[in-house]
């Protein structure tokens, strides 16, 4: 195992890994040790690997959707096929996302280490927990974040929070991959608490390693970007796991302005009845499909339904903004 040969690296090795049996570590654990020793400071090392991972995964996972949007063949799986994002929209979205990453997520990443250390989370330590331990912990993080997101997302649709915060995210009634984190910095901070909170909370009851959280964030980025992709393929995960939300579930939220507030799973919307309009819409689509005598007739009728839902969504959005204005006048 190769390390930086400086005296600082040697000091870091002694300070962080004194007494560690390196021969018992697997390849990933050895690279983890090498990273922390090379930086020599766990705060910087944790911050750097977190930020680099986030940027690489976010824009790397968004790139295939940018390519797919540019290829007409894939439009038959596009949920709103008449709304393909333009290159200018993609670029404008990228600039806003980068701004939020630099102004909110980057500072939050640097603050994460002291918070994690305070609640007892392991960071630089090796070996890693077992795969079974990481698996159930990651599922807990997903469960926690999904419930938090459902509640926070509903709150973001209240008049004041919508007008001054969440409205930015609803700029696109037909979302696309890059738009997953297209949001006001305050929204990024609010919803980010759900992503971070589950791991910090679980530390109060059991041992948690940063690697579990690290993998969870990668999973979360894939989920968020795919949910905003605007495509529903026959092999999409929601067709394998009926309780998975996916793009088809979240696309309706952007189109209708309401319903479907959760992220990973459908069950909170079902339990609390915040998918009622969505369920009616799906029933109407199935009825139109059964009645249509040709694919062209079905697509035309489906587009008419989408136009109707979008018009109703714009009315609902305007009503929320009007309530915000009235409250502002009263105050």
UniProtKB/TrEMBL annotation:
Give GO terms for biological process.
lipid biosynthetic process
> Which is one Pfam family of this protein?
FA_hydroxylase
The keyword Transmembrane helix is assigned to this record: yes
* Gene Ontology terms for molecular function: iron ion binding; oxidoreductase activity
Which cellular components does GO assign to this protein? membrane
Please provide the record's keywords in A-Z order: Membrane, Transmembrane, Transmembrane helix
Its annotated compartments are: Membrane
Residues annotated as domain Fatty acid hydroxylase? 139-274
Q: Name the residues that span the membrane.
A: 33-53, 199-219
The main location is membrane
Q: Which PANTHER family match?
A: STEROL DESATURASE (PTHR11863)
UniProt-recorded name of the protein: Fatty acid hydroxylase domain-containing protein
What organism does the UniProt record list as the source? Lentinula guzmanii
């Amino acid at each position: 195992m190769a390390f930086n040969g400086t005296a600082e690296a040697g000091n870091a090795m002694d300070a962080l890994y004194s007494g560690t049996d390196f021969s018992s570590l697997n390849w990933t654990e050895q690279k983890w040790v090498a990273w922390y020793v090379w930086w020599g400071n766990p705060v910087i090392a944790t911050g750097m690997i977190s930020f680099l991972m986030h940027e690489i995964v976010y824009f790397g996972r968004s790139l295939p959707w940018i390519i797919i949007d540019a290829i007409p063949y894939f439009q038959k799986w596009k949920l709103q096929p008449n709304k393909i994002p333009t290159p200018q929209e993609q670029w404008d979205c990228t600039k806003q996302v980068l701004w939020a990453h630099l102004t909110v997520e980057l500072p939050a990443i640097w603050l994460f280490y002291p918070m994690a250390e305070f609640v007892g989370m392991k960071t630089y330590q090796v070996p890693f927990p077992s795969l079974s331990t990481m698996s159930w912990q990651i599922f807990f993080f997903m469960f926690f974040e999904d419930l938090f997101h459902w509640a926070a997302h509903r709150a973001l649709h209240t008049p004041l929070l919508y007008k001054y915060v969440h409205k930015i995210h609803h700029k696109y009634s037909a979302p696309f991959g890059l738009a997953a984190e297209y949001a006001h910095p305050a929204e990024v901070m609010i919803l980010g608490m759900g992503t971070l909170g589950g791991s910090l909370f679980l530390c109060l009851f059991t041992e948690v390693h940063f690697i579990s959280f690290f993998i969870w964030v990668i999973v979360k980025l894939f989920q968020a970007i795919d949910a905003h992709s605007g495509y529903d393929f026959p092999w999409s995960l929601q067709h394998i796991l009926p309780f998975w939300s996916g793009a088809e579930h979240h696309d309706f939220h952007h189109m209708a302005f309401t319903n479907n507030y959760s992220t990973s799973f459908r069950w909170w919307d079902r339990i609390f009845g915040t998918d009622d309009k969505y369920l009616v819409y799906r029933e109407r689509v199935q009825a139109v499909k059964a009645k249509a005598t040709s694919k062209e007739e079905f697509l035309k009728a489906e587009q008419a339904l989408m136009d109707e839902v979008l018009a109703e969504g714009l009315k609902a959005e305007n009503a929320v903004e009007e309530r915000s204005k009235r409250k502002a006048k009263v105050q």
